[in-house]
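Crash report, auto-generated. Payload:
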Amino acid sequence: MKRIITLVVNGEQREVAVEPDLTLLEVLREDLGLTGTKKACNQGECGACTVLLDGKPVSSCLVLAVRAHGKAVVTVEGLAENGRLHPLQEAFVTYGAVQCGFCTPGVLLVAKALLDTNPHPTAQEIEQAIAGNICRCTGYVKIIEAITAVAQNQNI
Amino acid sequence: MRLPKFQYLEPATLAETIPLLMEHQGRSKVIAGGTDLLVALKQRLHTPAYLISLSNLAALKGIREEDGMVTIGPLTTLEGVSAAPLIREKLPGLAQAAWEVGSPLLRPMATIGGNLCLDNRCRFYNQSLFWRSARQPCCKAGGKVCHVTNKENACFSTYSGDVAPVLIALQAEIKLVGSQGERILPLEQFYTGDGRRPNLIGGGEAELLTEIRIPLSSHTGCMYKKYRLRDSIDFPVVGVAVALRLDQPQGICREAKIVITGVGSRPVEATQAGEKLTGREMRPEFILAASETAAAEIHPVRTDQVGPSFKRHLVRVMVAEIIRELGGVDR
Ligand SMILES: Cc1cc2nc3c(=O)[nH]c(=O)nc-3n(C[C@H](O)[C@H](O)[C@H](O)COP(=O)(O)OP(=O)(O)OC[C@H]3O[C@@H](n4cnc5c(N)ncnc54)[C@H](O)[C@@H]3O)c2cc1C
Ligand code: SF4
Ligand code: FES
Ligand code: FES
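Recovered output after restart:
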């Protein structure tokens, strides 16, 4: 039986009628058209589906949509403001931290959550924060460089 | 892979939950954080008609200290456990174990109760329906033969939870609540050692885990170490928890509890190794003897990519390392 859930997605209140067996990932991509959030392993192993749920990065393929009722969701589409990329996105471009881009939305959101709570993380804290996000092409060096640059407020 | 169809029930209180468990016994599953269960549902290891969500049971969340005892509600997330100042200060081994579960994207959802109730794992079982359809179902999946051992009617799937070993080493107790009322038992008695039904409520019994209690006076030091293939995300290949009670720092060991995950169908206590240490000073030769004994008294079966002899080696090394660190002994 469908039920109506309310989500605040990227700052905007949305109502969706969902079956209980849908994951938050499926609702974001299929009902709300937010395909920036990627579906890869679909079983909690890779982090491609990361969104921020009430500010915390989680694998949305393992969250039932009904469980997200009343919560705030941030997806990669919510990072740019007024047509300007988020500083993290700018840095990922500048530092070449994107290749195929499949892991990128998830890594960006994890990095945002990290810098929101800890604006000047150590290299180790950055590594630990992105530990659940698997990147198979860029590798982690450039990703860490890009996040570090934003944390150090470097001109990008 | 999509989830199978089910009806989703969200009782508001524990008193409402128990009758639902009884009414739908055998065709329902309880869901806490869902990080283990939803994968199993996608793989069609279970197809329950009902999911009974615990998420509204606020009384089952939170951590408190009372009369020398720390009480943790099973719905407390692993992130919450590992970050709680009380746990970090008084039970650092537990904070460490909770922090080592899965990845940072799972710990804000995964609960400590779900972790203790984690189903046993096996390379022939934790696979998609498509993958599994290449063979006859094994014992755990309702068939006759075990694909690991070729034995009939026996399952050797491995208990791989990270938190139970520490809690057993700390002599924790749990509370189970069902239609018959509540019972309190040592956590180690919760595990059956039967791969098909690894804990007392894993067979769909109408009972819930509602409380975890940890005495603070049972030990003077406790530590957890985990070895896994990818440090960022994987289940343990081997995880070792040790709780020691020393009469004074670097003094004589009055009690030693060594509990290991990843090496059997339940969290395995290396009792002989613990006895070897008891009454001894923290000296390298006694530590070595205890670690050799621990490696000899476990019986791992090849249910993941790592074979038994390497697991024994890991246990030998890790047990010795932890005891040296807890006992303040140089290499
Ligand atoms: C990629 C990945 C990596 C993982 N790595 C690890 C790891 O390294 N170590 C590890 O230990 N685990 C790991 N896990 C498994 C899982 O994430 C954790 O064990 C987690 O703590 C389970 O908690 P949960 O609340 O999500 O449980 P759920 O999935 O909600 O439930 C798990 C089981 O417990 C039962 N249950 C839950 N709460 C109760 C209760 N209060 N009373 C009765 N029954 C209950 C459920 O019915 C279900 O059978 C991993 C999972 C994934 C997907
Ligand atoms: S140990 Fe054997 S019976 Fe148990 S899950 Fe593995 S293959 Fe199946
Ligand atoms: S798609 Fe969710 S973790 Fe891989
Ligand atoms: S950029 Fe391709 S997986 Fe990371």
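Post-recovery validation: The longest helix of chain B spans residues 308-327.
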